[in-house]
Amino acid sequence: MAVTPRVLHVTQPVDGGVGAYVATAAADQARRGWRVAVACPPAGPLAGELAGLGVPCLAWAATRAPGLADAGQAARLARIVREFGPDVVHLHSSKAGLAGRAALRGRVPTLFQPHGWSWLAARGALAPAALGWERLAARWADLVICVGAGEAALARRHGVPAELVVVRNGVDLRRFRPAGPGERAAARAGHGIPEGTPLAVCVGRVTRQKGQDLLLSAWERVAARDGAARLVVVGDGPLLPALRARAVPRVHFAGDVADARPWYVAADVVVLPSRWEGLPFTALEALATGRSLIACGVPGISELVSAGVGAVVAPGDVAALAEALLLRLGSPSLAAAEGSAAVALAGGFDVGRSMDALASCTLGLLGVGTGNGRRCSRSRKTSAERGFDEHCQMP
Question: What Gene Ontology molecular-function terms does this entry list (predicted)?
Answer without folding.
Answer: hexosyltransferase activity
